Amino acid sequence: MLHAVIMAGGSGTRFWPESRDARPKQLLNLAGERTMIQATVDRLGDLVGPQRVLIATNAKLAAAMREQLPGLPPSAILGEPCKRDTAPCIGLSALFVSRDDPEATMVVMPSDHVIGPDSVFQDAIRFAASLVDERPGRIVTFGIRPDYPAESFGYIERGEPLPVAVPPSFGTAKAYQVRQFREKPKVEVARQYLAAGNFYWNSGIFLWKAVTILEALAQHQPEMYGLLQRIGAAFDQPDFEAVLAREFQAIRGVSIDYAVMEHATDVVVVEAPFDWDDVGSWQAISRLRGADATGNTIAAKHVGVNTKGTIVRGPDGHLIVTLGLTDCVVVHTPDATLVANKHDEESIRQVVQLIKERGWEEHL
Amino acid sequence: MLHAVIMAGGSGTRFWPESRDARPKQLLNLAGERTMIQATVDRLGDLVGPQRVLIATNAKLAAAMREQLPGLPPSAILGEPCKRDTAPCIGLSALFVSRDDPEATMVVMPSDHVIGPDSVFQDAIRFAASLVDERPGRIVTFGIRPDYPAESFGYIERGEPLPVAVPPSFGTAKAYQVRQFREKPKVEVARQYLAAGNFYWNSGIFLWKAVTILEALAQHQPEMYGLLQRIGAAFDQPDFEAVLAREFQAIRGVSIDYAVMEHATDVVVVEAPFDWDDVGSWQAISRLRGADATGNTIAAKHVGVNTKGTIVRGPDGHLIVTLGLTDCVVVHTPDATLVANKHDEESIRQVVQLIKERGWEEHL
Q1: A342 to chain B: closest CA residue
Q2: Reduced to 3 states, what is the DSSP secondary structure of residue A173?
Q3: What is the pTM of this model?
Q4: What superfamily in CATH does domain A2-277 come from?
Q5: Which residue from A minimizes the CA distance to B305?
Q6: Integer Cα distance of A168 and A173 in angstroms
Q7: Which of A345-354, B13-22, B140-149 has the lowest mean pLDDT?
């Protein structure tokens, strides 16, 4: 059976002041009416039933997740006791998924990307699942055709195409053997990848049998696997929460790419046939929500004069007036307001650091 | 005896969102710790006692004025029932002032300018009062040496200097006969005035015997004078408030310059020996409060990165972050936020109009 594991533990600071420690990007409705985690669950449609969805998140975010996802059973929210990167998260999720369904296939995906249309996404996941069915030890990944030399993504180098028919909705997209996973590159290297034409961005969407990934962890990360086994042995025990807290904390945080992917042999990359956006910064909001005739993207009670290419966001009752602004981002929340030049928004990380230094954590 | 009449009925929109219908510029502390009306009263020092200060304001602002000026008797606040420009306001004030002191000399001054040092201002007023004492029918005005071809002020053309000694604090400032009052000019005309060298900005500060200005109104504005007389006749009558409301409303609004000054003959202009700033826009705040090493003027809980020449104002608890901004104005209030390019802030009037058109008067 197909299960979906949605990784929703991220804490990003790039959308401050809307994103906060207690309300990270995946809980925000940056791209539309629904929050990103809601849209991610919606996107699954009938592909997997609510009983087979697992939201792997930080324990501190579990209550907010349950509130935003009333259609899922409360047990669908897996609250990790601490942050330990993607490999421990995926290993723990695989344990949960394979507990009642040892033959389970699982799709792992991030919770904070915008993907569409839903039907093409579902076609793509079904196709990937068929590739796993064909050879059960296989790992299937999704690659995004890069359109600029991004330094913020890992890359996947493809090899030979697989001799399989793709669904009609795929257009020119195909599946390929993976030649190699590549870490986030410097811009010069990213330019070479782009020029080579056979590199994809790593979307962070994976399909495999739960047993496949657990075996891979046993092989490549034996210490992690041992600690995960102790957690699995405590399932249904009265002290499960205590065991989980203790053993999970003891795991060294490491990414799934580094822990498994770079060692795996039978890996396939499916070129994503769907639209994809990682919503990496405020600028993405204009792209995703569209802009009015003057290039502005407004989600606020707003009056603008001589305002162009600007994003304005705020709660209902608060009036925001912009005057003579070009390419700015104005984001108002009840306790904090950001006014930034769009071309300078990478500095937002620096801002969060400065807020900490001033001792103003109440705004983070 | 010298009386002070402070005209505090203005409603300006240039400091929105800090200034509002119910809290105009004179009630704000734009230039320092004290509000502008408080600073205006403070500036009088021992020149006139609190019993001889009259605050002529709009009835709607009277309560706020009393609250900000606890050192004045409540009767010192004269609440006009409606807005009627400066001539009716001055005429009504002259009636009040001359009621118990028929020989009163009155200094009339705006409530929303920054003037200093106080001692030089007091020297100047004393000197002006001595000029009135010398020739009781005389009108004394104060002129500001212009430093750019402003279109937003009236001008005073000076004639021959008066053969009188000025106080030591005057420096090169002198008193002159007035040749002519000039309305707010177009910029080309203002440039000619500047080049001519014998023009001052009209500061709106006047000295005269109360009877002098009442006689002038009787002569040049007989209809207004008639209505003011009816109000004066009702002093101490039980129906005074009703008479005031009815008759004052019937007066046609007109400025004192137009109503009297342009017809008056024995008018003297004293070149202001004090520093003067009309605080005409947010830019004045940098000038008056000074700027830090990066040219910013901050009165807020603020974190700035790559921020230069920018004014940031907000209440205590609200964090404002600016990123990559140059020459901007960010003003936050609990229900509205302004983000403006400093060089575009004249458009603020347009903004207020747009807010009205949208039906969002709750923010005005």
Answers
A1: B324
A2: coil
A3: 0.90
A4: Spore Coat Polysaccharide Biosynthesis Protein SpsA; Chain A (3.90.550.10)
A5: A351
A6: 10
A7: A345-354
